């Protein structure tokens, strides 16, 4: 089935999310839609899937114009979509989830799942999915849950399959398995629209790459284009994709976590007996698939989980049990994973957001009164230092782009002497150019002698920044390994192996950690598929 989008425009009031977009997807082709978060990729796919009605333009299937009033119309036309956040009911079986919305009944109105089970087995055998129709979804690994979503689309005879940020919650090994599945689907004639902001994966899987920036197509290229060229198209200027940082020179160990445990509501620990250290002048990066205790770990350190137990000590002082404001005054800088919810007050000015932690203290206040001139002077200096793109430091912070909002958070947290700096998902939703800047600032903080802890689900970011890497799975620490440990080993640890087990199983690995004789490569998408000297 050939799919065409012609002149698709989607407006939300004065905001133009998609601007006159043309796109052609041919049978048996993987067409990647590449762009930064907020570029308009998902909006475009929601238009295609019938979730949004286009303001202008038209959709053609095999040369004939079609109108989709909802996802049911899109599915009837042969279009399926696997959303970034899976649309599955955990307590249902695979067969029940696949049948949902397309139920068949026996005589007497009894649900007939036999045909659904047979179809699941047929598709599973054909593509090597290895999915049990009677397994409960909540018992399945994330990678298998994604296969269930793909099966749902194929059962409905999808000839075009949209995959929206499909690797966001996968380990490197699961990503490799997904790429193999895509190859098999393509060989069977299925057209794939692969939406991503990850250059490595786009080059690994694509036949054609269309780059979107600020809602408009800026070019269509083939996967032989260099990562530098793709990054420049995404951002609109030349950017560096590698961080040339000097080796760490760790000093005194001033931050220690011992047996930290955060209980969950269901009786299972969200963080389970975790221990590690960070020395002055080094970056410890915490890796793991989202939802494995990273959020609770950082929040416990900051004092947001009153029932946490164990020990968290900074410069010999116990932080566990302190109030958040007192922990901040111990010299802890913190960048939360969701800047809009926890890091900024959108209606406040940039200047006011720069002093949220210190608004009532000198030099920004005297007694009960703030000193607006001092607050504004501070903001103007930080706007210049951190290259915050704005017309005025007095503008509401909500008017800034995501990357510039993140710069405001970092400017605030790095504008005072720190004894510990924690950044959770420091570049989430940030364009490539801003990532380059923010990474350099984080390394500069390390080089100034601060212990730094980074939490990220992006392995490229982990590899760029880390001097050592701690991997969490199910709230447990699988181990701490050197910063140049291979992606394969990290992926095995993210899936639940201890460091010792993973180092013994990674391709070309032996029990010696990478950096001391270990191998630092091997996974499918970091080899020939990630060609180009610019890659990390």
UniProtKB/TrEMBL annotation:
Entry-linked SUPFAM superfamilies: P-loop containing nucleoside triphosphate hydrolases
CDD domains given in the database record: ABC_Carb_Monos_I (cd03216), ABC_Carb_Monos_II (cd03215)
Membrane-topology annotation of the record: Peripheral membrane protein
The keyword Ribosomal protein is assigned to this record: no
Keyword Cytoplasm part of the UniProt annotation: no
Name under which the protein is recorded: Nucleoside ABC transporter ATP-binding protein
Gene Ontology annotations for the cellular component aspect, listed alphabetically: plasma membrane
Origin superkingdom: Bacteria
Species of provenance: Arthrobacter subterraneus
Domain ABC transporter: from-to ranges: 3-239, 255-499
